[in-house]
């Protein structure tokens, strides 16, 4: 169905016509031997934009996080990360399962930040009973906290703390350009103190496949071998990288439009009876919404699906919407009017005349 309004994720953004043309015409070679000229150009450009020496093209953000972890630290060391971070919650425990890295989660605050005191007290002192702390992981923007933004100052402070203890830092910057746009700073400033940064081409930048890992030439060389280990070394990947190059030139500067569309949606949702939106956490392109009984996430999502609208379900009472370049204000108007009807049907009169109504 082509007229479905897909707000499940920014990964639903289709490639642009310019990307499709670039993909069709891409010059290719064997990326496994690092000989694909388009991949090489993409890696050089990504490194330049993030202010790092080198970059590596990987098939997914999940693999990008894992190769970074494997490249930065030794087998058996512990990883400090947020208890709501994507790597901890949604990546199948890959660092523990594949890398032999136990997780040491510390609480994420409401905006996805970590308290430096919590991080410091999670760092292991030398003791025969303890694993060594091998890595600190940050996430910006923070997906599960609602696309919230980690400030340059907090990023610097947390990196300095880790480095003072000899611990490297990996930044899951899946949506780092959304964070940079929201803060009005270059992405390189957010990436500066992290040893490696992963960002996704396949989210708000609308590339069909691929993520980048950026870091020093030495770490990226190790990451390249880890990518091979995980089966992520590709062949004529220039066909995909060509879309990535278009994205880096054409899709970054327009991200504030997605943020404005998300804000418009969030403000509309907050007016619906039975819908609770924490507007302070709507900082980029993600909108979480808590539903009050008798509404439930499954029922609302199913009713939306019947109306040709897709959202994601997070537990019994939460749904998530993510905007991207293919979503316009007119789409959001359609979503809000569908929801008004759904609330009446599912919520009955109690909600329809509720306090938010
Ligand atoms: C913050 C964050 N990190 C990593 C990933 C993983 O990316 P991928 O789906 O490409 O594996 C995602 C995916 O949504 C994400 O939101």
Please describe what this structure looks like.
With 357 residues, this protein is of the alpha/beta class. Helix content is 43%, strand content 15%. It has helices at 17-25, 37-50, 61-72, 86-89, 94-97, 116-122, 152-164, 176-183, 187-191, 217-229, 238-250, 255-270, 297-306, 329-352, and strands spanning 5-6, 54-58, 78-82, 103-106, 133-139, 169-172, 196-200, 211-215, 275-276, 286-291, 309-310, 312-314, 318-322. Helix 1 (17-25) runs antiparallel to helix 11 (238-250), helix 12 (255-270) packs parallel to helix 14 and helix 13 crosses helix 14. Pyridoxal-5'-phosphate binds at residues 60-62, 65, 86, 139, 143, 172, 174, 200, 202, 211.
Concise description?
The chain is an alpha/beta fold.
What is the count of β-strands? 13
On the 0 to 100 scale, the average pLDDT is: 96
- Major sheet attributes: 7 strands, mixed
Query: Which runs of at least 5 residues are low in confidence (pLDDT < 50)?
Result: 353-357
Total separate domains: 2
The percentage helix is 40-55%
Strand order of the largest sheet: 2-8-7-6-5-3-4
What is the tally of helical segments? 14
CATH superfamily of the largest domain: Type I PLP-dependent aspartate aminotransferase-like (Major domain)
Radius of gyration: 21 Å
* Classification by helices and strands: alpha/beta
The CATH topology of the largest domain comes to Aspartate Aminotransferase, domain 2
What is the second-level CATH architecture of the largest domain? Answer: 3-Layer(aba) Sandwich
CATH top level assignment of the largest domain: Alpha Beta
Write down the overall geometry: globular
Topology order in helix (H) and strand (E) letters: EHHEHEHHEHEHEHHEEHHHEEHEEEH
- End-to-end separation in angstroms reads 33 Å
Instruction: Name every ligand kind in the structure.
Output: pyridoxal-5'-phosphate
